Amino acid sequence: MENRTSTYSPAFSIVSWVAPLGGIVVYLLGLWNATLLLNEKGFYGLAFFLSLFGTVAVQKNIRDAGLDQSKETPAVAEDFTE
Fold it and tell me: What is the pTM of this model?
């Protein structure tokens, strides 16, 4: 497997971690303050974390399978001429 290094700026990397973590915290605070039964809170919490797991799994599979060719194949003008 080839070594992939991040070429993003530090600000982008920080924001890409802070935004999901902030969303998780706000979601958990909302569940904590909701007037739902405990089993309903558990259902919504587990559904949220299961969807996060699914999102990460799909992204890793796409990366590992090499299906994201958009960044690796530069478009040239000859490809778009008739």
Answer: 0.59
